[in-house]
Amino acid sequence: MIKVLFVCYGNICRSPMAEFMLKQKVKERGLDDDFVIASKATSDEEIGHDIYPLAQECLKKHHISYTRHEAARVKTKDYFDYDYIFAMDHGNIAALKRIFAGDKENKIRLLNLKGEIADPWYTRDFEKTYHDIDKALDYFLENLQEF
What pTM did the predictor assign? Predict the structure, then answer.
């Protein structure tokens, strides 16, 4: 079982987008029984809120299935519960290392190996965020043995 956690600041845009996008990708490949996929936040600001409406619209546009989502905050035990912890930006990595008191097993990494995934809450460019996540997820699945 491969356990993947996506993390962003509020858990209402980037990380739930990545969660539902990866769920669909593994389902399409017949691998959904091999994965546990979730998303969480580094902050408390959006706890309990659903996916941001513009992120929902973007997922719908690309025919990505999603369900009601309640933003949740990362907990210390999550470090031990997941194999891969993908952060969307360097700020998320720093926050995760504080929450987890480090990263002894090197589980925390940027989702996009080429750099940060821009926060569409601020950029308003949900399409770019979608495409950056999509490319990063494809790379992850195609190169799983390297991770």
Answer: 0.97
